[in-house]
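Run log, item B.
One chain of 155 residues. Sequence copied directly from the ordering sheet:
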Amino acid sequence: MAGFRIDKMASIIREIVSDAIANKLSDPRISPFASVTRVEMSGDMQIANVFISVLGEAAVGRTTMAGLEKASGRIQRLVARELSVRRCPEVRLLLDESLKKAEQAMRIIDAALREDLGDQIGDETDAPQTPTEPPTEPPTDSPSRMEPTGDGVTE
């Protein structure tokens, strides 16, 4: 039961903070490419860690986070106003680096695959070429199963 409540609260907080970033905050430091990636709630639902991803350079991310930290009181009030709970969780805004780390990992994997494929192509060009013969058709000594018989019925 508690897991459902935690997930529901995290989902609501994610919507509220996303809407605040997109529509209600007018700080020029906040990048329009900032988005909430996930919200992690503490077990007692007193702390909400809101992870924010910012597209672009690291400097843009730092500037956006500075603007969001400055607006954290407004975000906290918006969350408190929307939630109908006795005690509103403390909203902590954190920069999410997981997407950038995943992108770096994918680049490393792609480079390794390209290098591996390059080695395989190099090995194939070094190997002597053997001519390939076209496949031969099997002999057709038996009559086709779809040939009509004398009585007009096919077998």
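Observations after the first pass:
- The CA atoms of residues 102 and 108 lie 10 Å apart.
- The beta strands are 34-41, 47-54, 90-95.
Flagged for discussion on Thursday.
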